[in-house]
Amino acid sequence: MAGRQVQKGTASPKCWSLDRAVACDRAIYIAAQLLALITTRSARARPEQRKRVSSFSCGDEDASLSSPCRGVSRAVDAALRQRARRGGASWSVLSAPCSSHLLSRSFSRCRGQPEPALYNGGILKFGTSGDPDGYRTTETGVFSPAFVVYNLNKTTMYTFSCELDLPCPPTFQFTSIPLPSLFVCDAMHVSFNNFWRRAGWVKLEGASSALITARLAPDNSGARCIATVLARSDCWAFVKGGFVLDWPTQTSVIFFQNADKTPMKITVASGSLQPFTTDQWAMHQQDTIRKRRKRVATIHVADPQGSRVVGASVSVQQTTKDFPIGSAIANTILGNQAYQQWFVDRFNAAVFEDELKWYSTEPMSGLLRFDVPDQMLAFVRSHRVMVRGHNIFWENQDATPRWVKNLTGDDLRSAVNTRIQSLMTRYRGEFAHWDVNNEMLHYSFYEQRLGPNASMEFFSVAQDADPLATLFMNEYNVIETCDDPFSTVDTYVAKLKELRAGGAILEGIGLEGHFSKPNIPLMRAILDKLATLGLPIWFTEIDISNKFDAQTQAVYLEQVMREAYSHPAVSGVMLWTALHQSGCYQMCLTDWNLKNLPTGDVVDRLLNEWRTLQAGGQTDAHGAYSFSGYLGEYVLTVSYNNRTTQSTFSLSPGDETRHINVQM
Known about the structure:
Layout: H1 28-43, H2 63-87, E1 133-136, E2 143-152, E3 157-165, E4 172-176, E5 187-192, E6 202-205, E7 209-218, E8 224-232, E9 237-243, E10 249-258, E11 265-267, E12 273-276, H3 278-292, E13 294-302, E14 313-321, E15 325-329, H4 337-344, E16 349-352, H5 358-361, H6 371-382, E17 386-394, H7 402-405, H8 409-426, E18 433-438, H9 445-450, H10 454-465, E19 470-475, H11 489-501, E20 508-511, E21 514-515, H12 520-531, E22 537-544, H13 550-566, E23 570-575, H14 598-609, E24 615-618, E25 624-630, E26 632-640, E27 643-651, E28 658-663
Parallel strand pairs: 3-5, 3-6, 13-28, 15-16, 15-23, 16-17, 17-18, 18-19, 19-20, 20-22, 21-22, 22-23
Antiparallel strand pairs: 1-2, 2-10, 3-9, 3-12, 4-5, 5-9, 5-11, 6-11, 7-8, 7-10, 8-9, 13-25, 14-24, 14-26, 26-27
Helix pairs in contact: 1-2, 3-13, 8-10, 13-14
């Protein structure tokens, strides 16, 4: 993320490979053993060295792997939690989901044959809405396959899907979901073929692979991207996307084209567009939260002889939350007791806005300044707040220290090695995550000077310097839009796989989340696709553009936070709301006097909603009391016949009821 003075700019095109893919297969067991070894060793570390370790997870589409993967993931989670409790570690253990339901329509692999249309085509049933027809785009003058749909509703969300291939035809599926001003693209199959005639599947001719975009032109207005996919010539690829309408339309066109506007023949088939109501969307979010963020627990109370105790008073209070929700902080929090208390009353995670960036810690060659981040780290540690490391390098030349800009060759290589060692040796074991090379999809300062493997080398050296840190890619315009050709979800996935195939230990997906008007259906589709990688996904810098008024910012912020929290693959949410006397980067939660703004009210309401209020009652005829609670640590108090006992327990992820036995 840019410092407050740095603006996003244009970027030079960069190349990526479609062929470097890393699959999650049965090597999971080997990885699990290695992780268990790391866990055992870290348990012996000194208290100041202990930190959060990300659990292993799997996102492979192969159904045969989903069950063992899930079992290993849970076993590792349990071991890590046990270690954390023994050592008094400050950070909870989180894992990316390893469930197959996420992958049902989020294929990251190409298929030999396209899948049938979702919802039997929905409102794009062939013969009703019509087969795709030719559509001449005003940008290129080239005909593209297109669907024409009528009378789309402003208050309805539409999901869209399709599959792609270069030598075969892909499937194009639409699905729709009603939500105020929301449309969703769920999936699409596109392939490359000689000619385009059928709906749903897309096929190209004249290229082995291409980035294909699905675009929406409502009532002949400007077209916008609603989905992307990297299509190949040898198989069918699955596409997911979404769109939001600001007004009802009489006639809308959904068409497909090569992302770089190069003329290309495309064939589409099996389109599907299905509507959902706002209530349906919200119900799905709540159902996922219930299954993934909560767990049922039953307290069994017995006397010393093992007989059930009926009518015992049970009180349960949540003391910590497993799911990290946090905010950026700046040096303005130092010495400001009111700000510090406001922060720790709300958040269990933090990230430093600018204070760890290279231009802050070494403004001149050899002049190291760590006093401010040291003080900020002491503050978060004293309150058991997990903290992300942001960032080691930033590919944006405008965010590079002035003295570094003039370096090349061995001088630059020496400087970057010194940077990694000075930073990560000093803070070894202190930061749960590190954003290693920020925004590498948009910028390429280091790779232009040190070669295309520079990022891979950064990850390798960082891993050696702090083996227990989770290393992240971090990028903007991946989750916010699909109109940025440098950072589509497909480009992000390709780069991540390229780095991992080259040996980089890259274990985290960082999505900045600097939103204008959020497209929630597209957001879900992108998360579904990223979830197939089986890595923890973090929203690292959420805010809403200050071009909107405070009330609108609050509405959009709530939409984004609810969708992020309800998605099973998301492991944490960070807000980019570091408070300065002059304001914040784009969005503040309070004014300088810590009086809530509308966005602050939203955050407070959601934080209160996503925690277990003090639960209590009496044991039933079986001597048991049950409740459903959010994941985290709890204090349990049981009273009976003037006797009281107090203990602690945790609710970790799991489908089964957690049973706690208490003897009075």
